[in-house]
Fold this sequence. Notes:
The chain is an alpha+beta fold. It has one domain. Helix content is about 50%, strand content about 15%. It has a 5-stranded antiparallel β-sheet, sandwiched between helices. About 30% of the residues are buried.
Amino acid sequence: MDLGSFGWRNYKGTFMHIDKRMNIVIAHTRADKSQLFVHSTPISTEIFDKYWEPISEAVSAIFKGEQGIVTGPRIAHKMLRKMAQKLGMWDTPDGVERGLLPEIRRLTHLLVPGKSGWEMTAFESARTSGMLSAREADQIEGRVCFFICCWEILLDEDQPELLDRAAQLWRVQLVSSNCSEYLSSLQTSSAAESSGAMAAA
């Protein structure tokens, strides 16, 4: 599958669109070389206001070193847990484990190829049902947490440069489309590819 047909490029500034309606789309290649996309919506202001302290501590810890954008998307959810535990905000009734992480998972969906085209499934369902391996779920959750947390913490003027660099490395696209709209765009692109292949044949 050609990722370029879905707006993915390998050089700076071509697929990053920064605005307040942004949603995250992650291209993920599975062990069998098949492709899926992860679509995640940012947390609400209310949720951020409740968990800003562990979020800010996690982002700060990630960027203390010069390799933040290299390692951050792999370990962001683990750093969030570590900082929440440090603050005593992890396993309390409304802590990060039972509040923030479930909310991030709720706002995250997978777009996977099915028998009749691209299909949508909830990340939490895929994570708990075994549709995703434990390693896949861990990798996806790290990337989603990194971009969600950084988006909430970074100043507007710092967002484009830093997130652009990280997005190129980790195959992340920021879009204004909600999950259903992005699914429709995949269906349209797939149909166009199929039509082109048939015409060429």
